């Protein structure tokens, strides 16, 4: 310390006095070769000369030692080696030598100004401008302007969330304007929740974001079908009845169920109570709108899964939220984008295992159809013999009608989409139209969708106004042939037409069958109408006022109006009216639904960064909403022959009925507060509180709070991990509560209806809806933890999530005693607890992005289990109904909603051909007893996911995605309905196993009862089978011609062609009929994308 004080004083004094020149001849003696420190060199000089050295402590730290040779050495040379070579300097005042660090050259600071814009020429506020290697910097204002002070040797770094960072050397420039380009992975860095945007690196929620290009790489049918391939938590429940029907609305689950699934729980306007909430451009929308949305307009989709991400939506978010963002118009010169889609669908009939004509006749013979003691009541044995011999003669003539392909065709879909956009820094516009004609694989079934949109944006100074007008509609028709099951039932030994080639109403051979077998082709020749059309108009207006880079206000208004009309006409010749009286033949039903909705919201946002480390973002938001729905339905019966469905020709309304109406109006209001805090991009916290009010629940339970709290840590920023090994390692977790209003409106007031009959006391009224003013909101407590990893230079990416969801209380519908006259009364009862895990893993064995050569292998998987509790005996009425209807479902504490309940079967007694059951006490018996039912399986797969391979080489991309399901059980309906449970008087075609696998004689070891046993067979464990499935979900290939000379010569800036194959195969351990009412299909598709 004393040496430092002396140094400071001396330097201050001597710096004012000219230095003397060190004598060039002064020398010292080195007695031997040695290596010493600089301090030791100065000591030697001081001892052998009159010079003294003054310097501060530590000035020679980290400096090398000096090698001295034996002999005499000049002091001046030693000083050069010890001082000058180490970038020090010294000054001489008489006999004192002062050692100091060389002063740094003076730096000239200069003022640099400029503007930062995006690639569309729009100014970017809030861009961070830093001097590279320091924490000194600034940010752009609302107009993208910035001012910074730096020396000419500095380099400026421009960075903004969602854009590529840019580095520009100053090099004496005083004005630097910068254009930032959108980062290809920008959507992976930003979480778009539909209400606020969050940086993904500091967000605690579990989300998946998918770009529009990724969706289009899977297929071109709709975004829902593509999304299921890309995220394991998003599941489309396979519908074995509706197959590939273009007009069906799928059942969707995100992380399982949160409600009891019963149709009684929904009102006329409600949705599936386990369906996620859908948000389109910041406003709520319907699943039908999302399915019909033009895929080419989609910029991104974000799946919000847990409390931190979904609590923003409060009472509607228990089943997850799907946020869809469409493409925004870009400024600049006019651009025109055109997209064409062609889809070819081929019916998939591989899972049908029906008898041919010879097999069917042999089955009927063995089953005793043509034996007087067991056969049909047609008289004596001679008539039965004649019947058999006549059919046998037809079979021997080669009659073997394959009915399945009769109502089918190769379905085609042709879609066109056109979008034009442009503008300048102040005003941008985008105008688009689209049309798609989807023809299903059943004749006459089709769906035509169309839409138009106008997007306008005005941005001036601090005001930003965006208006989006969307008009869309559809015209849908079902097949006039009706259910495909009618063709699967048709007997193969019947001819399709008579001897004149005419399609007859009934299938008959020499009038042996009378009119008991309808020709399934006949109804297709009639003027059957089954049509739905819709027109929807939606306008979204949003205004944002930015006061500064820290504070802004925004407000939005949505107004939506829709009309849907459904018309069904069955002419009097239709086979449904066989045997009906003349004035009851033919029917006409017309249903019109009108809906109107408006939403108003306003939000204030404050964001600030303190000391370059503390980032705080807060939001306060309020919203009001009103929805009005009205439905009117009329049904008329009895039409003259040859009429075209005009209800004016009907003889009457449906007997004992009248036109029906339904009206619903409900209002919602909510307030929201959210906060996100991040420290040094390492530690972060999210918190959300929302209070919802709604008229959908009991009048005594109008309001309910929802909340979430989450925290996380970027471990890669904490432990200074080598970024070339691990560039992302984030831990996150959250807990919170959300609600569910998907089932519609639960009345809190009693609604009465007038009876149509009048007696001496006057006209009576009935209770249509009994009020429950105390019914509570469903509340789902969600806990979620997860980890995100990126390793080895983006070669390995992994995400793991584990979660728990407990819905308490549930809302269920029960039947009250018959004396009340109420058969569907909503109550709160019990809870449902769901636990699950999900994982996404991708590895790139080849990763050369600069060469555009990347090969990525992927594996996703999810597993979950749900359990009921707290019911006690409240739902015994529902369980009684299930027992009476032979349902597989029960509502019992400790069991899963996916459990399959049946009586355990020990198989078929080889001696008698009867089924042997096991009682609850473990005793074998031939008697089936409903009280012996127990859990015999679970329909939920043990694990389900997708295995994928994606290769990109230059302009060529090839992808393959295969879905797997392991574990889980299925009811084999083909065995239950077409091998057993066959009626004695039913001449429908059946599964071939009814002939080959049923018991015939004592000693036969079979799985099925006697072929002559026509008793009703209840559901037993024989029909519940373990199912493992592998599906060829998507195979795709694309080529980008954008950079070729040919494309440029056409004046195009982009040209891309895609080819797809979807649902190419399905391998299952259970052989069951699929597509009962409408067959499934395999698809080949093509897409062309061009931009001018």
Automatic annotation (TrEMBL):
One of its GO terms (cellular component) is cell outer membrane. Residues 1-23 form the signal peptide. It is a multi-pass membrane protein. Keywords: Cell outer membrane, Membrane, Signal, Transmembrane, Transmembrane beta strand, Transport. SUPFAM superfamilies: Carboxypeptidase regulatory domain-like, Porins. Residues 200-321 form the TonB-dependent receptor plug domain. It comes from the Bacteria. It is found in: Cell outer membrane. The keyword Transmembrane applies. NCBIfam families: OMP_RagA_SusC, SusC_RagA_signa. Belongs to the TonB-dependent receptor family. This is SusC/RagA family TonB-linked outer membrane protein. It comes from Aestuariibaculum suncheonense. The lineage of its organism: Bacteria, Pseudomonadati, Bacteroidota, Flavobacteriia, Flavobacteriales.
């Amino acid at each position: 310390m004393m040496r430092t004080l002396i140094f400071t004083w001396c330097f201050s004094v001597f710096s004012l006095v000219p230095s003397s020149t060190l004598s060039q001849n002064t020398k010292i003696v080195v007695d031997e070769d040695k290596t010493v420190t600089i301090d030791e060199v100065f000591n030697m000089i001081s001892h052998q000369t009159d010079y003294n050295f003054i310097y501060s402590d530590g000035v020679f730290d980290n400096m090398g030692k000096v090698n001295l040779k034996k002999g005499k050495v000049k002091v001046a040379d030693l000083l050069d080696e010890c001082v000058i070579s180490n970038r020090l300097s010294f000054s001489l005042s008489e006999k004192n030598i002062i050692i100091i660090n060389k002063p740094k050259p003076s730096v000239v600071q200069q003022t640099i100004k400029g503007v930062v814009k995006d690639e569309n020429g729009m100014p970017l506020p809030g861009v961070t401008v830093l001097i590279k290697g320091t924490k000194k910097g600034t940010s752009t204002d609302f107009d993208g302007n910035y001012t910074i002070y730096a020396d000419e040797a500095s380099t400026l770094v421009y960075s903004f969330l969602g854009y590529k960072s840019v580095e520009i050397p100053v090099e004496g420039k005083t004005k630097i304007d910068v254009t930032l380009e959108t980062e290809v992975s920008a959507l992976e860095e930003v979480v778009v929740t539909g209400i606020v945007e969050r940086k993904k690196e500091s967000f605690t929620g579990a989300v998946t974001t998918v770009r529009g290009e990724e969706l289009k790489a899977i297929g071109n049918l709709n975004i829902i079908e593509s999304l299921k391939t890309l995220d394991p938590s998003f599941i489309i429940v396979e519908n074995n009845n509706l197959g590939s029907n273009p007009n069906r609305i799928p059942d969707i689950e995100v992380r399982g169920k949160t409600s009891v699934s019963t149709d009684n729980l929904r009102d006329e306007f409600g949705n599936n109570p386990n369906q996620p909430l859908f948000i389109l451009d910041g406003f709520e929308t319907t699943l039908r709108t999302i399915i019909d949305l033009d895929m080419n307009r989609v910029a991104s989709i974000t799946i919000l899964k847990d409390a931190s991400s979904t609590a923003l939506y409060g009472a509607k978010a228990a089943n997850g939220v799907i946020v869809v963002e469409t493409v925004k118009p870009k400024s600049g010169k006019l651009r025109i984008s055109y997209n064409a889609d062609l889809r070819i669908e081929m019916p998939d009939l591989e899972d049908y295992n029906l008898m041919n004509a010879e097999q069917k006749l042999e089955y009927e013979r063995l089953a005793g159809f043509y034996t007087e003691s067991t056969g049909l009541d047609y008289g004596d044995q001679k008539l039965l013999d004649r019947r058999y011999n006549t059919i046998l003669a037809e079979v021997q003539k080669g009659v073997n009608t394959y009915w399945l392909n009769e109502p089918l065709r190769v379905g085609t879909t042709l879609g066109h989409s056109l979008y034009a956009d442009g503008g300048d820094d102040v005003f941008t516009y985008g105008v688009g139209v689209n049309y798609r004609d989807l023809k299903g694989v059943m004749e006459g079934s089709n769906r035509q969708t169309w839409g138009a949109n106008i997007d306008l944006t005005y941005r001036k100074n601090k005001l930003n106004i965006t208006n989006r007008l969307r008009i869309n509609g559809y015209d849908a028709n079902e097949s006039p042939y009706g259910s495909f099951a009618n063709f699967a039932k048709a007997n193969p030994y019947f001819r399709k037409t008579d001897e004149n080639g005419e399609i007859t109403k009934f299938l008959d051979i020499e009038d042996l069958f009378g009119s008991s077998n309808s020709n399934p082709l006949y109804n297709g020749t009639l003027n059957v109408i089954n049509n739905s059309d819709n027109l929807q108009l939606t306008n979204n207006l949003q205004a944002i006022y930015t006061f500064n880079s820290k504070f802004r206000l925004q407000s939005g208004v949505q107004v939506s109006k829709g009309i849907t009309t459904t018309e069904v006409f069955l002419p009097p010749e239709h086979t449904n009216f066989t045997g009906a009286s003349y004035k009851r033949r033919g029917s006409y039903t017309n249903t019109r639904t009108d809906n109107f909705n408006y939403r108003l919201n306003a939000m204030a946002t404050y964001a600030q960064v303190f000391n370059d480390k503390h980032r705080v973002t807060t939001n306060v938001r309020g919203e009001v909403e009103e929805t009005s729905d009205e439905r009117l339905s009329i049904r008329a019966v009895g039409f003259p022959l040859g009429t075209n469905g005009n209800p004016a020709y009907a003889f009457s309304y449906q007997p004992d009925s009248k036109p029906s109406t339904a009206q619903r109006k409900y209002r919602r209001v909510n307030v929201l507060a959210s906060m996100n805090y991040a420290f040094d991009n390492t530690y972060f916290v999210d918190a959300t509180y929302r209070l919802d009010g709604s008229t959908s629940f009991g009048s005594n339970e109008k309001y309910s709070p929802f909340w979430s709290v989450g925290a996380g840590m970027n471990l890669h920023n904490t432990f200074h991990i080598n970024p070339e090994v691990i560039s992302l390692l984030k831990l996150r977790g959250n807990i919170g509560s959300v609600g569910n209003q998907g089932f519609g409106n639960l009345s809190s007031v009693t609604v009465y209806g007038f009876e149509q009959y009048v007696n001496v006391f006057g006209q009576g009224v009935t209770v249509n809806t009994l009020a429950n003013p105390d019914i509570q909101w469903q509340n789902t407590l969600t806990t979620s933890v997860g980890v995100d990893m990126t390793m080895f230079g983006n070669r390995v990416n992994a995400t793991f999530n584990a979660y728990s969801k407990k819905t308490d209380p549930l809302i269920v519908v029960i039947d009250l005693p018959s004396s009340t006259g109420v058969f569907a009364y909503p109550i709160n009862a019990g809870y449902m607890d769901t636990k699950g895990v999900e994982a996404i893993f991708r590895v790139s064995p080849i990763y050369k992005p600069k060469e555009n050569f990347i090969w990525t292998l992927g594996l996703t998987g999810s597993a979950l289990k749900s359990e009921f509790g707290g019911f006690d005996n409240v739902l015994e009425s529902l369980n009684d109904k299930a027992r009476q209807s032979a349902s597989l479902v029960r509502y019992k504490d400790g069991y899963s909603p996916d459990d399959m309940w049946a009586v355990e079967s020990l198989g078929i007694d080889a001696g008698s051909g009867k089924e042997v059951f096991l009682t609850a006490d473990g005793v074998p018996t031939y008697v089936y007893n409903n009280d012996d039912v127990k859990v015999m399986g679970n329909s939920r797969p043990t694990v389900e996911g997708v295995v994928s391979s994606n290769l990109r080489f230059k302009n060529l991309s090839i992808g393959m995605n295969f879905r797997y399901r392991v574990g889980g059980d299925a009811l084999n309906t083909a065995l239950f309905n077409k091998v057993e449970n066959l009626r004695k008087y039913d001449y429908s075609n059946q599964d071939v196993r009814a002939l080959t696998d049923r018991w015939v004689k004592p000693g036969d070891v079979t799985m099925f009862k006697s072929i002559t046993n026509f008793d009703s067979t209840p559901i037993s464990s024989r029909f519940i089978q373990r199912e493992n499935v592998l599906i060829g979900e998507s195979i795709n290939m694309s080529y980008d011609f954008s950079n070729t000379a040919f494309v440029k010569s056409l004046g195009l800036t982009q040209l891309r062609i895609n080819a797809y194959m979807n649902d190419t195969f399905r391998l299952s351990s259970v052989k069951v009929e699929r597509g009962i009412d409408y067959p499934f299909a395999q698809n080949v598709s093509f897409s062309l994308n061009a931009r001018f």
